[in-house]
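Hello,

I think I submitted the nicotinamide-adenine-dinucleotide job twice by accident. Can you confirm which output corresponds to this input? Input:
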Amino acid sequence: MFRQLRSSASKMVRSKPQPLQNSKVLIFGAGNFGSCLASHLGDSQHDVFMWAREQSLVNYFNEHHRNLFYLKDHIFPSNITAVGPELPSKEFLNQMDVLLFAIPTQFLRANLSILHPQLDVDNLPLMIFVNKGIEIGTHALTLEIIADTCGADIAKAATFISGPSFAKEIVERQPTSVSVASFTEEEADKASALFHQPHFRCYTGGDPIGIELSGALKNVYAIASGMSDGLGYKNNTRHSVIITRGLAEMTCIGTAYGASPLTFLGLSGVGDLFLTCSSSNSRNYTVGYRLGQGESLDGIMNTLGSVAEGVSTTKGVKKIIDELGINAPIANSVYDVLYNGKDTQNAVRELMALPPSKELELPPTAGGPARQLLRKLGL
Ligand SMILES: NC(=O)c1ccc[n+]([C@@H]2O[C@H](COP(=O)([O-])OP(=O)(O)OC[C@H]3O[C@@H](n4cnc5c(N)ncnc54)[C@H](O)[C@@H]3O)[C@@H](O)[C@H]2O)c1
Ligand SMILES: O=P(O)(O)OC[C@H](O)CO
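Support: Only one job matched these inputs. Its output is below.
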């Protein structure tokens, strides 16, 4: 369900009209996901620019149509140009129809703060965000980071894409479906039209807070699932003790936060939870698996070679569940293993020793944090 936006106090910002084809898209981030989306959009005949922080990546990409560090085996369409390492100029940004942010959550605020003064709200590109995390320190969702750095009007027009989508499989054109959410239906529709292909299906919705929370939370439960597998527990344990109970926890956290519980049954919720909790292609699952096998967190992070958002997000989740008073034993166990030195074997044993309880007791939808965020956005 999309909400009716009020136009009273603040301006109703809309992105510029999008061309029917050949949109000019600038992607921030040339990691696994930024470059996989560049490939997908290049494949769909858009004019794609991919900003990278590494000069060597930019040079190598433009010469060989390959990414020096990520998805190394993939040959990218020739209509993608790498740019950087300086952030693009105001003139360049103004020529773009779409700005797509594929950088990890912890770095978003700094980059948006620099970019915001360069944006022209009357000629605003479609703004799309695909990161899945919660900011350390502030425990802010991306919506709030956008509101803080770019203002409420741009945050209301921002669109979020989330769902079960491994970069490696998107570049192989494996059929994939994702959720596309915004407070502004028109913006979600534009993002959906940009990405939708027979092998990449988009489903729109109006609960960006729920989409963001589910995408961030599933990473924490993927760490738990990997941990259980790494310890040698089998399918029953993964699917009952971790995934299904994890879904119940996620839904309770989301409901208390103020999101719709139904969002957690969608692609960004249960879809991505199942995917990430059951595949060694997931970096979050891999972190958990290696912890379960006895490796140290520092050792894992130093060799993973890519971001695992769940590791930092667990800190934000811990703050949120403590503040909301939610009973979330799996998320608490992951926090204790990552940050309090708890032994993984004890963590899983303790989960199994929990007293009997009701299967699902959704908290009242008081929605304090969402209400505060909506107030910040003038909604
Ligand atoms: N990989 C996937 O399959 C996938 C799928 C869906 C969503 N995501 C989400 O997309 C986001 C990016 O993930 P990824 O897989 O591309 O990660 P990655 O580790 O592959 O790449 C990270 C990128 O961030 C850049 N970066 C690092 N520090 C930065 C900074 N200070 N400022 C700007 N950029 C910086 C790196 O140069 C790199 O390009 C994450 O939030 C992730 O959860 C990933
Ligand atoms: O590799 P992960 O654990 O970051 O998961 C990637 C995507 O979020 C899967 O949808």
